[in-house]
Specification:
By secondary structure, the protein is an alpha/beta fold. It has a single domain, classed as 2,3-Dihydroxybiphenyl 1,2-Dioxygenase, domain 1 (Roll). The protein has helices at about 1-20, 45-55, 80-85, 110-120; strands spanning about 40, 60, 65-70, 75-80, 100-105, 125-135, 140-145, 150-159. The strands form two sheets. It has a four-stranded mixed beta sheet with strand order 1-4-3-2. The protein has a four-stranded mixed beta sheet with strand order 5-8-7-6, covered by helices on one side. A hairpin with a 2-residue loop joins strand 3 and strand 4. The radius of gyration is 20 Å and the shape is globular.
């Protein structure tokens, strides 16, 4: 009986530690790719792009070379034209020119709330809603828009 109680406490402690750390008991081992930290894209229309992403309710930070847009714990770095047009700037895909992004965001709300947010940001829905296979290995409903530079943005709702 004592072994069962100790085992339950041990397993309960592991589960509690995992919940606090944000990981799970069956998480990938150390040394594995865990996900995306950020993506980087060249940007042409700086002011319009920043206004658009702020209109989506996202936090934006600026520096001399890039503008960072934060989505939870992930980030999009938009390289300013002065950076990506510089011949000596090699830390990008050789053919990267605006628009070259095709990004999918998970929307955690209703279709109506998504439409309202997109309207507020001035985004026109170009397709959707429609069923799509998502990165979470299940089907969701997607809506597509373009940002001011022409990058394709998909907003997926999982149900």
């Amino acid at each position: 009986m004592q072994k069962k109680v100790l085992r339950r406490r041990f397993l309960g402690g592991i589960a509690a530690a995992a919940a606090v750390s944000g990981s799970s008991v069956d998480a990938q081992p150390a040394g594995a790719i865990r996900g995306f930290d950020h993506v980087a894209l060249p940007m042409q229309n700086t002011e319009a792009m920043l206004a658009f992403y702020r209109g989506l309710g996202l936090e934006v930070a600026e520096n001399a070379n890039a503008c960072s847009v934060y989505i939870g714990t992930q980030m999009i770095n938009f390289h300013r034209p002065a950076l990506w047009q510089r011949e000596t700037f090699a830390l990008r895909a050789p053919a990267a020119r605006p628009p070259c992004g095709d990004l999918c965001f998970v929307w955690d709300g209703t279709r109506e709330a998504l439409s309202a947010m997109l309207d507020k940001a001035g985004a026109k829905i170009i397709e959707g809603p429609g069923p799509r296979q998502g990165g979470r290995k299940k089907t969701g409903s997607s809506v597509y828009v373009r940002d001011p530079d022409g990058n394709l943005l998909e907003f997926m709702i999982y149900t």
